[in-house]
């Protein structure tokens, strides 16, 4: 087996906590309709062909992002079975669920570095921020496993890779530019983006800027725009510089800035949200022979979040500050001993700090000052016993520490917590041919409580109340066991000389115990101003069992392309035996397109199908009984035209109609969908 090339390393900048793609769905280009078989960096962190990667993964490529023009990262994931969203139209409040998980049970990665700022309670954002315009690829792994990703990720992993100049340059060019403008009717949103990029000698550089300005959303509840006044704006800036001093080494540094503004409500009852995020990242990649295949990633992230509700209460205001320092590194060594071993080992560490101030500039009790530390060591051996059978054991040691740093720890009972855990995993892969592989895996998961689960409170200014969460000295981290059996296939020339058929199917059983939740203690207190303080305690409330099936197939016969995916999920509370409400039991997507090459036109159709069931909406407040919501299907038609002006520019023009029948529906998680709406955009690459 040959060692990694730098091309493979660059593709695997997801580093120590990465889990790359196994099911990639491309949009056919004008020059080649049949998609070539991608080479991916797999769950075992080594270079493999698509049909050899042993896991349930879905990849959203830059071609699909360009065609669909999603408003947010969450909006780009709506086609993936057993992946559900709340508020996918909002960069601030998007929440993702994988196989019924909570959003804080997912590991989020950007260019290989874990993002730890996404779980914020109350009026805080609950997601990572990455503008789809800046994204090259999104990888979604369904199913947990801390042995692969470190603390967290017991529900799944979402990994984002941002664009570089190499992703944007036209063949044979050293410099280029890209301009894009569009309109999304569903959010009354206008968007613009601009890129400059180039390559000279060993230096590769890119800068990009994106601006979105939107208003009220077209709700599926009535097919009309919301009556609630709303104004949103999202700006994103990215820059990345890479230096290749030799064929075996790459250095890169990047800076990303995201700013979101959202004003919602009437003038006398308006909530204003402001979020600014800075990310400075760097990486070094070095390869030498069979023994050294090194990747090092570092990141500093600063998040400023502000909520302003002073229009209805002069104390409804806070500012949050969140700082994060992260590093991860891995090396792969290849050697022969009774077969071929690809031994991958490394470590990762992160330090996170948070604090908040109120309208008077004083420390805000809703976000006590605190810090957290996470670290881990791992080793993994991909052991190719023979050309057909591979065994991949992995072992990880994880550690965490949470510490309040306020002056009033005793008043609120805040206390430090720390613990460690060893999480093993193992995967067996059988490949009877180059086109077909089977796999079976068992992975363990470990999720310690986040800072805002231990040290936080929620303010209710209209009622003069505060809810303070007290730590539980006996609190245990959440743990999971994920069992999965699957098959991958990738066949060319199956029914004709130029077709290709790709499929993936798996069954899974995910068990999660020590679920973390906040419950009232029954105690209360009063502030100096007479406001009531209600105390809550973080407790382990039980365990859940999730079983299901996932399958997808892609077929490319000549100029056409077809995609079909299906997911089934059954989740129950093991304490009560009851089905967990709010989770979609079955979900399917059908997509079909055809490219007419003489005109460079691609027409496509998409259907999303959701089965109804028990929602998380109670029939009456605190009744414990939940509403049943019906299933629904939405339909989309789109047309993409790619004209070219030789030696000058390539254009892409797309128009689509979503929810053609204006179907009125509501997701089982309580969120509303979008009524009939239109999207149109134009891009030019020079």
TrEMBL record:
It is a multi-pass membrane protein. InterPro entries: Beta-barrel_TonB, Beta-barrel_TonB_sf, Plug_dom, Plug_dom_sf, TonB-dep_rcpt-like, TonB_haem/Hb_rcpt. Keywords: Cell outer membrane, Membrane, Receptor, Signal, TonB box, Transmembrane, Transmembrane beta strand, Transport. Residues 213-238 are annotated as: Disordered. Belongs to the TonB-dependent receptor family. Residues 50-157 form the TonB-dependent receptor plug domain. Residues 1-24 form the signal peptide. It comes from the Bacteria. One of its GO terms (cellular component) is cell outer membrane. GO terms for molecular function: heme transmembrane transporter activity; siderophore uptake transmembrane transporter activity. Residues 231-660 form the TonB-dependent receptor-like beta-barrel domain. This is TonB-dependent heme/hemoglobin receptor family protein. It is found in: Cell outer membrane. GO terms for biological process: siderophore transmembrane transport.
């Amino acid at each position: 087996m040959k060692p990694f090339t730098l091309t493979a390393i660059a593709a695997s900048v997801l580093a120590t906590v990465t889990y790359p793609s196994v099911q990639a769905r491309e949009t056919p280009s004008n020059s080649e309709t049949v998609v070539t078989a991608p080479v991916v960096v797999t769950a075992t962190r080594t270079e493999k062909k698509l049909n050899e990667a042993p896991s349930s993964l879905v990849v959203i490529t830059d071609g699909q992002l360009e065609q669909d023009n999603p408003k947010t990262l969450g909006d780009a994931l709506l086609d993936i079975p057993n992946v559900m969203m709340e508020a996918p139209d909002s960069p601030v409040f998007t929440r993702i669920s994988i196989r019924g998980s909570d959003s804080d049970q997912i590991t989020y990665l950007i260019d290989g570095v874990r993002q730890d700022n996404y779980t914020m309670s109350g009026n805080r954002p609950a997601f990572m921020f990455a503008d789809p315009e800046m994204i090259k690829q999104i990888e979604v792994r369904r199913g947990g496993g801390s042995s692969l990703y470190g603390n967290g990720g017991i529900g799944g992993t979402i990994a984002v890779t941002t664009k570089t100049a190499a992703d944007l340059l036209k063949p044979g060019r050293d410099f280029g530019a890209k301009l894009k403008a569009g309109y999304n009717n569903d959010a009354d949103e206008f968007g613009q983006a601009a890129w400059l990029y180039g390559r000279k000698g060993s230096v590769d550089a890119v800068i990009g800027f994106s601006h979105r300005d939107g208003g009220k959303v077209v709700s599926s509840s009535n097919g009309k725009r919301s009556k609630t006044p709303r104004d949103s704006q999202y700006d994103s800036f990215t820059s990345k510089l890479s230096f290749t001093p030799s064929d075996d080494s790459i250095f890169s540094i990047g800076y990303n800035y995201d700013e979101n503004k959202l004003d919602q409500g009437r003038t006398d009852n308006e909530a204003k949200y402001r979020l600014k995020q800075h990310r400075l990242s760097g990486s070094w990649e070095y390869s030498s022979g069979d023994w050294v295949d090194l990747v090092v990633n570092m990141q500093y992230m600063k998040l400023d979040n502000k909520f302003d509700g002073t229009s209805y209460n002069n104390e409804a205001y806070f500012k949050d500050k969140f700082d994060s320092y992260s590093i991860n590194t891995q090396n792969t060594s290849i050697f022969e001993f009774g077969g071929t071993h690809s031994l991958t080992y490394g470590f990762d560490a992160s330090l996170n700090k948070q604090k908040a101030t109120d309208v008077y500039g004083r420390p805000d009790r809703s976000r006590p000052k605190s810090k957290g530390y996470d670290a881990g060591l791992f080793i993994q051996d991909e052991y190719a016993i023979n050309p057909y059978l591979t065994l991949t054991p992995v072992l990880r040691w994880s550690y965490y520490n949470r510490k309040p740093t306020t002056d009033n720890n005793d008043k609120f009972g805040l206390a430090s917590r720390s613990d460690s855990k060893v999480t093993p995993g193992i995967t067996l892969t059988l490949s009877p041919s180059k086109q077909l592989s089977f796999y079976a895996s068992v992975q363990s998961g470990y999720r310690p409580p986040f800072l805002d689960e231990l040290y936080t409170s929620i303010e209710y200014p209209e009622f003069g109340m505060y809810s303070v969460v007290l730590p539980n000295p006996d609190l245990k981290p959440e743990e999971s066991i994920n069992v999965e059996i699957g098959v991958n296939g990738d066949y060319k020339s199956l029914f004709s000389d130029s077709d290709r058929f790709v499929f993936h199917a798996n069954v899974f059983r995910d068990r999660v115990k020590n679920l973390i939740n906040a419950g009232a203690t029954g105690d209360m207190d009063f502030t100096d101003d007479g406001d009531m303080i209600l105390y809550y305690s973080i407790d382990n409330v039980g365990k859940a069992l999730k079983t299901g099936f996932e399958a997808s197939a892609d077929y490319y016969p000549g100029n056409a392309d077809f995609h079909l995916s299906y997911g089934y999920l059954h989740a129950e509370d093991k304490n009560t035996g009851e089905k967990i409400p709010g989770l979609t039991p079955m979900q399917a997507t059908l997509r079909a397109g055809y490219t007419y090459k003489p005109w460079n036109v691609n027409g496509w159709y998409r259907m999303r199908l959701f089965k109804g069931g028990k929602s998380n909406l109670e029939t009456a407040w605190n009744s414990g009984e939940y509403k049943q919501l019906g299933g629904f299907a939405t339909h989309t038609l789109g047309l993409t035209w790619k004209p070219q002006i030789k030696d000058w520019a390539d254009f892409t023009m797309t128009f689509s109609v979503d929810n053609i029948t204006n179907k009125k529906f509501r997701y089982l998680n309580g969120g509303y969908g979008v009524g009939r709406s239109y999207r149109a955009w134009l891009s030019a690459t020079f």
